User: Which sequence fits this backbone?
């Protein structure tokens, strides 16, 4: 991270000014995170929930932390362009150094007081039960010191008067974001009570579906075991479907908010219970199909690819079905979608080359569909993958066809070689990826299983598979991912009309948002986030998407070399 910040500081005067103006905000966020981690790892306040009075409130303080983190995100989602502009102006206005030093010193004193009171009241997780609960006065002092820590943090980072003016004019949406965040936290805590009855209903429902797929069903409700005489699985509480219900509720909530002007309320709210029922039924079908695959086809495929991919596949089907229904039905949509234009919109500046070509009729599809094709192919082939996904070439074919379909609109962005600096960035990402790669027993076992699966192929098939695997991971995947995350998302977070945003335009929300989204796409999400930041910097440097693609290609090529030459196939899994 420090290396990334130092590299970005050289982007140019605009970016340097941006970093300087936001240095206090970054340091403040890091300080809050560090202080929260120290408190949460050192002390356990949950035993105080049964003590009564103010101490019970302290016992629930830890549960408020996730809501505090979610509230700013909800505020951003619910904000319009004008409100985001006001918030950005507030972030770009650091307080005078006199106030920084004054409130920084006050913050340090408040932190010392807070840790002193906390250590006195709760030096160990079992303090409350071992020595009794301290007085209510100590509890009051704890709340006072905690409030002082938060207040001095805010006043150190933001100038007091502009912040107060902003809160006075926008207090409703601030309170709404905080209320929704607290409500989400309470709903998440309360949902645990639904796991047991929902798990039982899921087990019984899956058994009823399974009866239609296999000759004889084995069901043990006490141990939550479902299967056949050949293949048995334990249906864990996590498979009750509550996670899928939570995901679909979040998805629909965000979708309904963003497209509220195109939808009919309250009629469109019918989609919420409808989606909940569909996602739960889809979960029943997933569990039944998993057992059927294990019984008729292969237990390894059932607990491997099918188990991990089928849930996301069904979620995507339900989510897209709800969106399609809301847009196509006159009951939910204010206006039926019109036919697509026969001529493309006005020309878009091609910032990488200075030339101009006709803009695509659907710019979002141009940059995102290749990734959707790759992901869709991955879900389909992953359903039947064992230790190795022999259907990998299929997903590469899907992605290649999507790139070819939109190539006339993409060739300018992807033309030519990047730069030697982007090659250096790729080398650095490769080194970073290898350093952060976990060294454990599972890694060796995964590599061995991959080698054994390859050994089951004849030499010609093995060579063809490895060749397509290398081609896909080192060329197609980098192009597809950079189009989606750097070409689309990074610019879309800056402006709705993203095709007119130059590739070297920087913004913290777009930089961090696209990098985090890129990282979450990968199993090694920490390394993925850092890699996304470095690929973004490669693009910012010269304002060319091809620089990010080149850096990505170099990194993936070196990883493929270690996987194939060194036999470390876990890097590909």
Assistant:
């Amino acid at each position: 991270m420090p290396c990334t910040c130092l590299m970005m500081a050289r982007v140019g005067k605009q970016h340097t000014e941006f970093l300087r103006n936001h240095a206090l905000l970054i340091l403040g966020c890091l300080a809050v995170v560090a202080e929260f981690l120290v408190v949460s790892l050192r002390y356990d306040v949950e035993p105080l929930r049964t003590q009564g009075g103010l101490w019970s409130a302290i016992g629930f303080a830890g549960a408020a932390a996730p809501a505090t983190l979610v509230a700013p995100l909800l505020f951003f989602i619910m904000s319009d362009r004008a409100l985001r502009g006001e918030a950005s102006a507030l972030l770009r206005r650091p307080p005078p150094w006199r106030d920084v030093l004054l409130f920084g010193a006050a913050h340090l004193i408040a932190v010392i007081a807070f840790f002193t009171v906390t250590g006195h009241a709760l030096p160990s997780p079992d303090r409350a039960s071992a020595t009794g609960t301290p007085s209510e006065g100590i509890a009051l002092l704890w709340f006072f010191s905690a409030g002082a820590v938060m207040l001095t943090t805010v006043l150190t980072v933001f100038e007091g008067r502009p912040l107060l003016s902003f809160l006075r004019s926008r207090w409703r949406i601030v309170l709404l974001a905080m209320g929704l965040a607290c409500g989400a936290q309470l709903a998440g805590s309360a949902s645990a009570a639904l796991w047991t009855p929902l798990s039982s209903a899921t087990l019984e429902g899956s058994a009823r579906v399974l009866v239609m797929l296999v000759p004889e069903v084995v069901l043990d409700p006490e141990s939550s075991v479902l299967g056949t005489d050949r293949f048995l699985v334990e249906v864990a509480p996590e498979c009750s479907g509550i996670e899928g219900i939570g995901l679909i509720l979040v998805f629909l909530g965000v979708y309904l908010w963003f497209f509220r002007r195109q939808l009919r309320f309250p009629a469109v709210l019918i989609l919420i219970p409808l989606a909940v029922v569909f996602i739960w039924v889809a979960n029943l079908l997933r569990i039944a199909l998993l057992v059927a695959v294990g019984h008729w086809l292969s237990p390894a495929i059932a607990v491997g690819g099918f188990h991990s991919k089928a849930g996301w596949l069904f979620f995507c089907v339900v989510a897209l079905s709800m969106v399609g229904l809301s847009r196509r039905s006159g009951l939910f949509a204010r206006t039926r979608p019109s036919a697509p234009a026969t001529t493309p919109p006005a020309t878009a500046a091609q910032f990488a080359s200075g030339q101009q070509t006709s803009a695509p009729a659907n710019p979002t599809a141009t940059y995102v569909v290749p990734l959707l094709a790759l992901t869709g192919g991955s879900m389909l082939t992953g359903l039947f993958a064992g230790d190795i996904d022999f259907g990998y070439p299929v997903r590469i074919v899907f992605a290649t066809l999507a790139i070819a379909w939109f190539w006339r609109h993409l060739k300018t962005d992807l033309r030519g070689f990047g730069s030697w600096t982007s090659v250096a960035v790729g080398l650095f990402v490769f080194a970073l990826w290898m350093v952060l790669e976990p060294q454990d027993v599972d890694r060796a076992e995964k590599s061995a299983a991959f080698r054994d699966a390859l050994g089951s192929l004849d030499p010609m098939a093995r060579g063809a598979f490895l060749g397509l695997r290398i081609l896909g991971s080192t060329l197609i995947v980098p192009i597809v991912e950079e189009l989606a995350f750097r070409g689309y998302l990074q610019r879309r977070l800056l402006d709705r009309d993203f095709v007119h945003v130059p590739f070297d335009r920087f913004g913290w929300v777009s930089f961090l948002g696209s990098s985090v989204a890129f990282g979450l796409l990968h199993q090694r999400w920490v390394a993925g986030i850092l890699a996304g930041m470095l690929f973004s910097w490669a693009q910012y440097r010269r304002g060319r998407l091809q620089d990010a693609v080149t850096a990505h290609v170099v990194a993936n090529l070196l990883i493929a070399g270690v996987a194939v030459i060194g036999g470390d196939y876990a890097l590909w899994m």
Notes: The first strand starts at residue 218 and ends at 220. The chain has a mean pLDDT of 76.
